[in-house]
Specification:
Shape of chain B: globular
Number of strands of chain A: 0
Strand order of the largest sheet of chain B: 1-3-2-4-5
Radius of gyration of chain A: 20 Å
Largest sheet of chain B: 5 strands, mixed
Structural class of chain A: mainly alpha
Distance between the termini of chain A: 23 Å
Shape of chain A: elongated
Structural class of chain B: alpha+beta
Distance between the termini of chain B: 21 Å
Helix content of chain B: 10-25%
Oligomer: heterodimer
Largest sheet of chain A: none
Order of helices and strands of chain A: HHHHHHH
Radius of gyration of chain B: 18 Å
Order of helices and strands of chain B: EEEHEEHHHH
Strand content of chain B: 15-25%
Chain lengths: 131, 171
Amino acid sequence: MFPIVINTVVGMAQTPEEMIHLMRSSERPARRSSSSAAPRGGAAHLRRPQGRHHALDGRAVVGEFIASSSGLGNFLLIANNAFDSPLLFAIVILLSLLSVALFYAIEILEALVLPRPLRRKALDFELAARA
Amino acid sequence: MKAVSVRPAPSPASPCFVELNAVSRGTSCGPAPNLLALDGVDCAVAESSFCSIVGPSGCGKSTLLMITGRALPPQRGQVAVAGRPVDGPCPDVGMVFQRDLLLEWRTVLDNVLLPIEVKRLRKADFVERAKSLLGLSGWAGSRIPIPASSRSACGSAPPLCRALIHDPPCC
């Protein structure tokens, strides 16, 4: 969850200031906002969080390690404590498959929802972040 | 821009269309944050007149225009356009920015119609006007998507048309 929150904030902060002014000057009078409003209206939609994959790549399991009474993370702990290697591996493989499936589900959703130039920008951003 | 008084002496027949009274605002960003960019600026512009604001870079010209268009709120002072105090987004003002701010995944036509969408008006009512505005500036093929690589080749016509699309009395 944290990567999504952080990337959302980074994405919002990167919205060009002039774009916010453009959107604010285009707003309907009825939608007037308080003068201190953060990027809102149309401008907020121009950027999207770059953290698309992180939440789904298996890190959610970490939460289950710490405090849970169910779920694969909890199951993983039980298998670990019981020295049940086959079960442990089965869970790891299942988690990997789930991650891959969710990754591509998000990719497909992104292709449907985002305009192409924004996808390219997001990809550039990710490559830069990795480098 | 400090205590500038710009009064092109509007005649009684044409009352002030844009009026700024003792408007002050500090800079929100840049090399010196909270620097007072505008300090008690009074300005009156008559209807159907051209007004130019001239000054060195960073003296607050854009801030003054932003405040008039209500893209930025003044910290002190009042702004009135067409006799109405401006205390929220103002439909009477069209703004053109220093950068073209075109959304590169939209066609030129859709970029020009952006304010209409933001105002949630019926797009179909404004398509003809958008086309005629673009036609005036030599943009016949307005459905052609703008390639990101040739954005600088677009010129200032589409942003200008975008500012004029809702027929603002003040631009």
